[in-house]
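The methods section describes the discrete structure representation at length, but only in general terms. What matters is that the chain and its backbone geometry are given together, residue for residue. Nothing conveys this as quickly as seeing an actual entry. For illustration, here is how one protein appears when written out as sequence plus structure tokens:
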Amino acid sequence: MAQRLDPPTSYRGGKSQKAPESSPCRGERQRRARQRERDGLAVFTIVGHHDRLVTALLATGHLTESAALRREAVNQALGQVLDEWSTRWAK
């Protein structure tokens, strides 16, 4: 999800390279980050067992088998589950 929301600016030799301060890419990333903050959103990096998470998302209907093959779809489904969970517990 973080990759989709805030992708690296460039690649060289398989390593992400930071864009110069004046780069339009850097400005665009900052604009998106500020918009997420205004919307009350945050990007979290979490570590979990891939197969168990995907199996749980499939079993609960948050993910289809074809979507389970796409990392972005898995990230979105996991974000949706966390958002539902936090909404229930925040009441």
Summary: The chain has a mean pLDDT of 84. Residues 2-38 form one domain.
